[in-house]
Automatic annotation (TrEMBL):
Belongs to the tRNA(Ile)-lysidine synthase family. SUPFAM superfamilies: Adenine nucleotide alpha hydrolases-like (SSF52402), MesJ substrate recognition domain-like (SSF82829), PheT/TilS domain (SSF56037). This is tRNA(Ile)-lysidine synthase. It comes from Moellerella wisconsensis ATCC 35017. Ligates lysine onto the cytidine present at position 34 of the AUA codon-specific tRNA(Ile) that contains the anticodon CAU, in an ATP-dependent manner. Cytidine is converted to lysidine, thus changing the amino acid specificity of the tRNA from methionine to isoleucine. One of its GO terms (biological process) is tRNA modification.
Length: 457
């Protein structure tokens, strides 16, 4: 039985659309909730593998949020579908902290953190948002008073995360793709009926306390009844906003580069020479440079007034999601909030590369090209954090307290407790990338090592 007899013209169109959007990608991680949208997406990829691309490797990732009493059943449902379609299935449980952002935003953040933890370096992340989702996202941005960046809604393709090859140090960039974004929910429903697919109906989708559900249940039906092509029109407006943002990116690239410190800080002095409009645009692009959500208008005002223009002796902090915006030495800095590592100790299987906790990156030993002495036989190499003692470092005649040394070296206050400290037994050898102690200096005429810190931030 040939392919055309198996599916309607619309179903063929949907499969062809997915094929076009994934292009040459052959390693795919699918966000699989078990709902209509992700079930259609996974089935399309399954069809492509079975009918056209036998080398297509698909994995399905289901996120257990723990928010619905039926969540365990949903896991079983998704696992059974993947078993039938011979697709490797992964389930990850996440904790949703709704105390700061609300349940919807917190669940989304937890979900995407799980995606990043599971994805392989050679994979693309594929999710099932569709045209109606895009229209809802546009309306939610409008409700928030967003500018063109927020009204751009969701792109079909965007950078997702950067992997670092531990052995080579090479950076590998992965993408997030949304291949269903031009297709309506009714089209997906037609596809599901055509193939008699089974999917989950999440009863929380009927709870109009959530903004997106309120739009979906009460607002969008009225708009679509009056203007049947409203979702497509909203998507076009989002695309035009994205086009304008892309043009602004192009025009402001050189100005942003001029304002950036080599470590990613943003010069307050440069911003002070700009109009308020240009300053706000540069701060937004600074957030984009760090792959963060754009701040809203009122947040921009507070960042400028409460952080950039705070009195000189202050140490201002503005909280933005899981980040803090801080000021240091005339620059604004985006600092990821994390649990303290002070007083913790980690044994290093020297000289193998070592992955640091809290996603701080990786330490790599480079032999024969540094001033640090290698550990002697029997010396245990460990990594610690948080230095509060008097030390004697290379380049200084006298011992000084670590607080003074950090200040002299221009190490930002938040980095002092995040910088890896290398110990041989109980002897401090080096603060990686900052200083080497007298006891850690290689003897003259002998080969030393360097320790490279490949930082995720």
């Amino acid at each position: 039985m040939n392919e055309k007899n198996l599916m309607s013209q619309l179903s063929m169109q949907i499969i062809n659309t997915v094929e076009e959007k994934i292009k040459h990608q052959r390693h795919i991680l699918v966000g699989f909730s078990g709902g209509l949208d992700s079930t259609v997406l996974l089935h399309c990829l399954y069809q492509l593998r079975e009918q056209r691309y036998p080398d297509l490797q698909i994995r399905a990732l289901h996120i257990h949020h723990g928010l619905n009493p039926k969540a365990d059943y949903w896991v079983q449902h998704c696992e059974q579908i993947c078993l039938e379609w011979k697709i490797p299935f992964i389930c990850r449980r996440v904790e949703v902290d709704a105390s700061k952002k609300g349940e919807e935003a917190a669940a989304r953040e937890a979900r995407y953190q799980a995606y990043r933890a599971v994805i392989y370096p050679n994979e693309v992340m594929v999710t099932a948002q569709h045209l109606d989702d895009q229209a809802e996202t546009f309306m939610l941005a409008l409700k928030r008073g967003s500018g063109p960046a927020g009204l751009s809604a969701m792109p079909e393709s965007m950078p997702f995360m950067t992997h670092v090859d531990v052995e080579s140090g090479e950076k590998i960039n992965s993408l997030l793709l949304r291949p269903l974004l031009t297709l309506s929910r009714s089209q997906l429903d037609h596809y599901a009926q055509q193939f008699t697919l089974c999917w989950i109906e999440d009863d929380s989708n009927q709870d109009d306390r959530y903004d997106r559900n309120f739009l979906r249940l009460h607002v969008m039906p009225i708009l679509n009844q009056r203007w049947p092509h409203f979702a497509s029109a909203a998507a076009r407006s989002a695309a035009l906003c994205a086009e304008q943002e892309s043009l602004l990116d192009e025009l402001l690239t050189s100005a942003l580069q001029e304002a950036l410190d080599y470590q990613g800080g943003l010069s307050i002095e440069v911003l002070q020479t700009c109009s308020a409009e240009k300053r706000n645009a540069l701060i937004r692009r600074w957030f984009g440079y760090h792959n963060l959500t754009m701040p809203g208008y009122h947040q921009l005002q507070r960042i400028w007034q409460e952080v950039a223009l705070a009195r000189q002796d202050a140490e201002p902090i503005f909280q933005f999601g899981s980040y803090d915006i801080r000021r240091y030495q005339g620059y604004l800095w985006l600092v990821r909030r994390m649990k303290s590592l002070v007083n913790q100790q980690f044994t290093w299987d020297y000289p193998a590369p070592h992955i640091l906790p809290n996603s701080l990156g990786c330490l790599v030993v480079m032999h024969g090209k540094g001033q640090i002495r290698p550990p002697a036989t029997g010396e245990v190499v460990s990594i610690r954090f948080g230095l509060q003692q008097t030390i004697n470092i290379v380049g200084r005649e006298h011992s000084r307290h670590s607080k003074k040394i950090w200040q002299e070296l221009g190490v930002a206050p938040w980095m002092r407790a995040r910088t890896p400290l290398i110990y041989y037994n109980e002897q401090l050898i080096t603060a990686v990338g900052c200083f080497v102690t007298r006891q850690g200096l290689v003897d003259e005429g002998k080969q030393g090592i360097a320790i490279h810190w490949d930082r995720n931030d």
